[in-house]
Amino acid sequence: MPATLPTGRLGMAGPSLRMARRRLPGLVAVGLAVAGGAALLTVAAVLAQTGLTSHLGPQRLADADILVAATQTHPVPEDVDLALPERETVDAGLLDTVAAVPGVEAAVADVAFAARIDEPALGAADGHAWDTAALTGAALDGRAPGPDEAVLDTATADAAGLTIGDTLQVTTPTGTTGLRVTGLTDAPGLHTDAATARALAGLDADEADFIAVRAEPGADAETVAAALRDALPALDVATGDARGDVERLAEATATGDLVALAFSMGGTIVLLVGFITAGALGVAVAGQRRDLALLRAVGATPRQVRRLIAAQASAAAAVALVPGIAAGHLLAGAFTGFLADSGMLPAGLPLARGPIGPLAVAAVLLLTVQVAARGAARRTSRLPATAAVAESRVEPAAPGPVRTTIGFILLIAAAAQSILPLAVPGETAFIAAVTATLTAVIGFALAGPVLVGLLTRRAAKRLDAHTPAPMWLAVKNNRAYARRTAGAVAVLALAVGLTITQVFSQTTYTAVTAAEIEAGATADATVTGPVSAADLAALGEEPGVDAAVGVAQTTVLRALGDGGVESFPALAFTPGVGAVADLGAAAGDLADLRGDTVAVSAASARLWGVDVGDRVDLVLPNGTEASPEVVATYERGFGFGSIVLAADLLDGPRFYDAALVAGDAGAVSAWAAAVPGLAVATGAAVPQAPAGMTPDQWISLMATLAMTGYVLLGTANGLVAATSRRRTEFASLRAVGATPRQVQAMVTREALVTAAVAVGAGLAFSVLPMAILGLGFLGKPWPQGPLWVIPATVAVAVLIAWAATAIPTRRALAGPPTAALAVD
């Protein structure tokens, strides 16, 4: 009778671990792959948790116990809600409701307004209603302001040489007015009474930014906040550090980008972990093929064999998770530091390091390893016992026709994606070019054994009696073990293709954007600073000035048919954009860009299915829903964005970020010299042509390089493990007369052949689509960017392929061949 094997999920643990101890190199490769993946995935998890749960804390309103505000996000079904970049107001009439809640001692409506103090050495200032400063205990020298009066902070008053009783001229989006100074305070900014603040902000009498609450002495703020939530269920009630999200809206909005970045990174990392881990497990399974065959011969079921391999992989992964997650926390701190330095993230945002992130990382990776392990063991486990024993010493038969067919289909699809930039405009072409590389590598991984077999078969036909023995053996080995070679080639090709594609897609995007801005930004001068509508009118009347057009940079959301939304940066222009910019008109007339209208890039119009005269559903920066009419389409969507708004579409009066001017730049400079807080630049400074990669692109590049490093680590791990398990093969060659130097020469040539095929495939999968991208958008049929990246990437790939085989080969040849033959 055959031996009885243990059953159950834990029954194979003993045999699994005993076999693992004899075949450690393959499992070490699995552990290193999991550790690297855990580090990268932990970075993504920390970023996501930080974006969802961390707060900056209040500053000006630190002494207000509770803040009541409108919800500053737009709901997205089955996804993270999108933060709104501009404040949605609340009904100031709710003050009575708030004050009536038990535990509330005082409540005031906060009203903020943007201001420019027209005094020498001054300029932009933040304005607020004095009631909020009084609620938070701000010191006051003088008296509180009344109508047309102001309290000024001491630092600003000293800089302007102002004191109590003086009058200062203040410009706001609603116009210019004189305010008499009635007091000085330690609270930063300019303070007026509530009615004046509303008038200067352009708000109605029943509007406020939010409501600040002071709890009664001894009352628990959280208890009072809970009562406020019950009384005002449609509003957000913030306590603790979450008050900072209400007060510092722009910085709070920036933290929401972390979530999108984290999910984008996380999905790619999980895919790479599966790819690398599957390759490492393939090596581990190949090293145990004889042991697994013997188990099948004594009665092990296919399920037991798969469970055995999965148990080994899970044990290696569990050991690797701890250092990997710890390293990920260190990397997350460094990465967020870079984000803060680049201005992408508010400085001082605390990282969220709770247990949820590590647990999620561990669960995802263990599941990934289980799936990869069972997949790697599937073929070996399903072979009949006699066939498994017979195949345990040779390369498995050629892969099935289904796998190969799918691989060739993916390669053809990748080729079609690569040429899309010649036919499809806009960012869709960039996305297609980038994804073509990944599609091609996956296709090559599936069809690789057949392709490598064809290449090595052709190479073998060129061998003759004059071929050196190491080269002859190297070609024959690569042909006989085409599956093993193809696995290493696919991962190396992924590293080469991923690096080149990501670098040149970013640099090409930058080049295309810069070219469109240079061609389309035709203004003779740009006035920057807080520019009001009155400033535009005055500037337009100056002798020598032909047109002055205000421009504001903002963000809008486009509603999708399934209830989702997508976010777009947008420029909003006052009438006359055609005089200061050439957007490359495609249809319609940009002169009609006024009132309830927008213009859309031609590429986006085709993608969205809209044309001139149609309406597009938008969510404005403060959450207001609108359906403006499309009055024009334009070609320069990279330089000017997917959508351009009429400034009238934005709610309420506002300062413009800049004024684009056509006419005499000298006249513009003379006019601006008399207006504190404004500066003049020659030419068009908005939109700004990129001089290099943007912070967003640098972040994407850093993430890509980190993942490429992980791929290269996985490649090295796999090659080391695959070479280490060839000790018996090397010993057999030495037993028949080969010298250690000849064996090393053979392995070196194998590595070079592997590297050559991988580099050729990686370059074909990346350089071709990047060259077509340059041809389609810039008319230059080569990758746009630093060309040294290509030879540098090739050199790294070749070095890793050589080192990962030469070093373990030298170790394998250290002892006598008889010892290796006896061990195996």
Automatic annotation (TrEMBL):
Q: Where does this protein have coiled-coil stretches?
A: none
InterPro entries for the chain: ABC3_permease_C, Membrane_comp_ABC_pdt
Organism in which the protein naturally occurs: Glycomyces endophyticus
Give TM segment ranges. 258-287, 308-335, 355-373, 406-424, 430-455, 486-504, 698-720, 751-775, 787-807
Which keywords does this Swiss-Prot/TrEMBL entry list?
Answer: Cell membrane, Membrane, Transmembrane, Transmembrane helix
One Pfam family from the record: FtsX
Its membrane topology is listed as: Multi-pass membrane protein
Q: Which residues form the ABC3 transporter permease C-terminal domain?
A: 265-378, 710-815
Q: This chain belongs to which protein, by name?
A: FtsX-like permease family protein
Location in the cell? Cell membrane
